[in-house]
Input
Amino acid sequence: MLMSVDADLMRVLADPLRLQIVTLLARETLCTTHLIEETGAKQTNLSNHLKVLREAGVVETEPCGRFTYYKLRADVIASLAGQFAELAESARSAAENKRSCP
Output
C-alpha cells in the first residue's frame, strides 16, 4: 500500500535556511556558533529555525558545557527518503495506467 509523504516534515524542510542547516548537520554535529558561521544567519533567526527542526524531530541536541550541539536524526531523513522511494516506485509501475476521459 502506498504511504503518503509526511507533509508536515516537508513544510519544515522546505525553508532554505532549515534545509541548509540539515545539509550541514548531515556532515557533522555542530554547535550554534558553528551554524551561525556557516550560514551567516543571525543568532535569533538561527535559534528559531533550530527550534522548528527540534520540535519536528529532525535534530536532537547535546549539551556540552555552555554550548549546545545539534545532531541530525538520520532515521527521520531515511524515513522521508523511503516515502519518496515508494512514491517513485508507484509512479514507475503506474506509468502505463491511464484513466479514460468520459
